[in-house]
What we know:
There is one protein chain. By secondary structure, the protein is an alpha/beta fold. The longest helix has 18 residues. Helix 11 links the parallel strand 15 and strand 16. The strands form four sheets. It has a six-stranded mixed sheet, with helices on both faces. Strands 1, 2, 3, 5 and 6 form a five-stranded antiparallel sheet that branches. The chain has a four-stranded parallel sheet with strand order 16-15-14-17, sandwiched between helices. It has 13 helices and 17 strands. The chain has two domains: 240 residues, Rossmann fold; 114 residues, NAD(P)-binding Rossmann-like Domain (Rossmann fold).
Amino acid sequence: MAKEFFFYTEEMTVGYDGKPLIRDIRIELERGEILTLIGPNGAGKSTILKSITRQLKLLGGCVYLDGQQMRQMTGREIARRLAVVLTERIRPELMTCEDVVATGRYPYTGNLGLLGAEDRAKVRAALQTVHAADLAQHDFNAVSDGQRQRILLARAICQEPELIVLDEPTSFLDVRHKLEFLEILKQMVRERDVAVIMSLHELDLAQKISDQLLCVKGEHIERHGTPEEIFTSDYICSLYDMEAGSYNAAFGCVELPPAKGAPEVFVIAGGGSGIPVYRRLQREGIPFATGVLQENDIDCLAACELAAEVVKERAFEPVGEEAYELALSKMRQCRRVLCPLRTFGAMNRQNEELRREARMAGILVSDSEL
């Protein structure tokens, strides 16, 4: 018998005005897991989320929450089990942050929407969970974007949901508030066993926080898997049709393309010493070569994306004569040599010899002389 997931879809088709946009969407999610949708702008990530939350009518298939078809559930039943945090900047009039959070309790109140003592206690607890208790009496429209997102998350927490759906929740946040928001979300998933479905544009954050990823492109789901399966350099470049630059899977970030032309500078590096130099040369549009770098060296992983040429040695092997001679040849074709590397050992002793040759040739310069 097939396993029944807490949340899953069967052959779901979504779109607008009766016109299908994405077909045969299959999602399987357990409690305590985070599923993140990634893909190009306009691919349909928000459409999928809005269809799950019934803001858009499904064009085909079914959505199940804890074994029950969502289309058979009442609005109140769904509101008690599913919470939504959207990107739209809501502007409620004359409402404090506490008032906004309190709206999360309405699925549990009577027709008059009156909150009892227990509801108020849960509002205060939700504010504390997102570290926003001091904002309770502030005008919601007067707080910062980061504070506003925390308040909206507190509102979702107040609903005591089993599933939270978030559409690009970090879009308006700076780096600090992105990290704070996602850490609060991750903590809630761990402690409350909540399932999360969200979309993110920040690939580095999606890679770090997600248990599963759904890659949306064209009229279908292109790939579904773990971060380790999805975040490869070749696949991310393919998913986003990247023509300029690349995606560096080792660093979890995109890279601008290397400067064009024959190398003008040779960089003797290793152990991370070369990365700041590589980035500076790239910013200044100076093509460069670098080496000798073992294939498992962090500088090698960066240089393969940023340098015009890289002289490599096998991982865990000392720099051999063949790699040394190749590096020496390329170094002599450059007008300047930089050596941010300060220490040499048995594995890179030949790089020290490269530095000596550059000094004797009068082409070894400091970073400030470049």
